[in-house]
Amino acid sequence: MPKIRVLIVDDSVVIRRLVAEELERDPALEVVGTAADGRIALARMTQLNPDLVVLDVEMPELDGLATLKELRKTYPRLPVIMFSALTVRGAEATLDALSLGATDYFTKPTTGGGLDASLGVIRDQLIPKIKALCPNTVNGTAAARAGFVARPSTGGAPAASTPARTISGRVDVLAIGTSTGGPNALVEILRPLPADFPVPIVIVQHMPPMFTRLLAERLSAECAIPVQEATTGTILQAGKAWIAPGDFHMVVEPEGRQRRLQLHQEPPENSCRPAVDVLLRSLAKAFGPNSLTVILTGMGQDGMRGCEHVREAGGQVVVQDEATSVVWGMPGSVARAGLADRVLPLSLIANEILRRVRPIPVSPSSPVIP
């Protein structure tokens, strides 16, 4: 199989060399070129014809955001991973880039851990992202020219038309789990929900510290429902949403007739902290059959085991379909395991949430429409 062709754009000679050398060690990857700024990168795109671009946020001449805007004019769906510094400025710029069409982001390894640690971060975090975003290198280059990215086959997973289980009982909480592609997906899910949404919302988005706080602020500004980064001891309230802070697991614990959020730093699960599985296990215990879980686009399988607990408790599960997911790892694993009540395009999930949270009363003589 052809190698995944990668273009690295960064103004730091050290970073370009460090990343390029580590990527070249992987037999599935080929660094077809490097560029010190966006103008050079744009000028070489036709010649290099990459399957994926790694693009630094902060550069002289033409920075990452301006370069991304130009790239998207000609390559609307070419995978682009933004290189971000783990700073407030870097986090804000990264969220801007994601809203402008960046596919994913990667926080640059800090120098404090030494060279081996930096290489380990590239090997364990960046390379899996590249492979997940280019699952089919044979079609990858052609897809970039045509303006779309090929998706892996569903492998027999349930289609969007899979009949739903009969909705029984009430929904007292909505949980959302997501990773790669999640910030934009969350906007599309939360924006249609009304300010009087009748249940609380708890969210796990795989992101580092600081990023989750800024994401919560942006979502809150764009949606009728207020969104906050979670804090320990918060009482869940209808019509409000909380995002697990980066590097902390979030759980829900019953306290009399109330439910409180708790945060902890127990070991990562699925290489993630926060992890969706951790949240969903707590929801199954705290809410029993009265929970609705939505799993959106993301790498890996985080959320699958948690959905097992939700379904065993009688709760409901909806997942995003393959065609509208940036990466169909998380929702795909739930669908393939037979745990999803519905597999739906992103554009239909908000309405499905409202349908399940506010079911239409049915008289004894009326037919039940799934």
Strand order, biggest sheet? 8-9-7-6-12-13-14
The proportion of residues forming helix, as a percent range, comes to: 25-40%
CATH-defined superfamily of the largest domain: Methylesterase CheB, C-terminal domain
Please tell me the total number of domains.
2
Beta strand count: 14
Structure described in brief:
The protein has 370 residues and is of the alpha/beta class. Helix content is 37%, strand content 19%. The strands form 3 sheets. A 7-stranded parallel beta sheet has the order 8-9-7-6-12-13-14, with helices on both faces.
Features:
370 residues; alpha/beta; Rossmann fold; 2 domains; 7-stranded parallel β-sheet; 5-stranded parallel β-sheet; 12 helices; 14 strands; disordered C terminus
Topology (elements, then pairings):
Blueprint: E1 4-9, H1 13-24, E2 29-35, H2 38-48, E3 52-56, H3 64-74, E4 80-84, H4 88-99, E5 104-107, H5 114-133, H6 137-146, E6 173-178, H7 182-190, E7 201-205, H8 211-222, E8 227-229, E9 241-243, E10 249-255, E11 258-264, H9 276-287, E12 291-295, H10 304-312, E13 316-320, H11 330-336, E14 342-344, H12 346-357
Parallel strand pairs: 1-2, 1-3, 3-4, 4-5, 6-7, 6-12, 7-9, 8-9, 12-13, 13-14
Antiparallel strand pairs: 10-11
Helix pairs in contact: 1-5, 2-3, 7-12, 9-10
